[in-house]
Design brief:
Largest interface: A-B, 37 and 37 residues
Number of strands of chain A: 8
Largest sheet of chain A: 8 strands, mixed
EC number (chains A, B): 5.1.99.1
Radius of gyration of chain A: 15 Å
Low-confidence stretches of chain A: none
Pfam family, one (chains A, B): Glyoxalase_4
Oligomer: homodimer
Distance between the termini of chain A: 26 Å
Number of domains of chain A: 1
CATH superfamily of chain A: 2,3-Dihydroxybiphenyl 1,2-Dioxygenase, domain 1
CATH class of chain A: Alpha Beta
Keywords (chains A, B): Isomerase, Metal-binding
Structural class of chain A: alpha+beta
Protein name (chains A, B): Methylmalonyl-CoA epimerase
Order of helices and strands of chain A: EHEEEHEHEEE
InterPro entries (chains A, B): Glyas_Bleomycin-R_OHBP_Dase, MeMalonyl-CoA_epimerase, MMCE/EMCE_epimerase, VOC_core
Strand content of chain A: 35-45%
């Protein structure tokens, strides 16, 4: 079961400038930041609200760290904007397996490491009406990641 | 103050097929549907979770009702995908005024009618790092809209 909008992933050319835009315009603060070498991104998570399943919804601002990363290629084609959306679930493995059985392409064989120690996978946008869709299971004790 | 991710607006060519995709793939059900003649869209709201400010987060699926609507033009250029994101606030008028003062273009002189009797405005995507951004104040008694 998918129980929340976990985050909206937004690709940008300059993470610091984009973080500053969201801070000065809306008052959103950085909750967490990290570099994900596997994904080739530097990212900032801005927590917007908590959710009824005990989790939270974030904006995830993404700047590519290398030209061959997926996000770098996406930015070169599309410019800045919404790159993906992510739904939270207690069990990303079971959700991915169930969705795969329905004929939707799951992009990873096994979930990989996402923001704040989460486990994530992606669904092919062409099978999701044009929306690159991520499934996320948060790390067990999210508060230790602050 | 913006207190939640209110919704993610997703443009599609065929609302019924897209609703069915979200139902059969994820189990998301239609919470509300309507036609907004002013915006030139037929839409379905899928409620994903409730939020810590007393509101909720939705997916808003949008099909254009006429070729000259903003969403129709966007679809012709981009194909299906995420069209905009929306933040919820208790006071869209005050938020829009404050954001305008910071030099971000607000697209409406006065907020207009959005989904479920809400009041909405939009911010220019070129001033928001490529993201068409909506501000929403829900109707006072949202439960009466079910």
């Amino acid at each position: 079961m998918l129980t929340r909008i976990d985050h909206i992933g937004i690709a940008c050319f300059d993470l610091d400038k984009t973080v500053e835009f969201y801070r000065s315009t809306y008052g959103f603060e950085v909750f967490h930041s990290e570099v994900n070498e596997e994904q080739g991104v530097r990212e900032a998570m801005l927590k917007i609200n908590e959710t009824s399943d005990g989790g939270a919804s974030y904006l995830q601002l993404l700047e590519p760290t290398r030209e061959d990363s997926t996000v770098a290629k996406w930015l070169a084609k599309n410019g800045e904007g919404v790159h993906h959306i992510a739904f939270g679930t207690a069990d990303v493995d079971a959700e991915a397996a169930g969705i795969k059985e329905k004929g939707v392409r799951v992009l990873y064989e096994e979930p990989r490491r996402g923001s704040m120690g989460s486990r994530i996978t992606f669904l092919h946008p062409k099978d999701c009406h044009g929306v690159l869709t991520e499934l996320v299971t948060s790390a067990p004790v999210e508060s230790s990641e602050h």
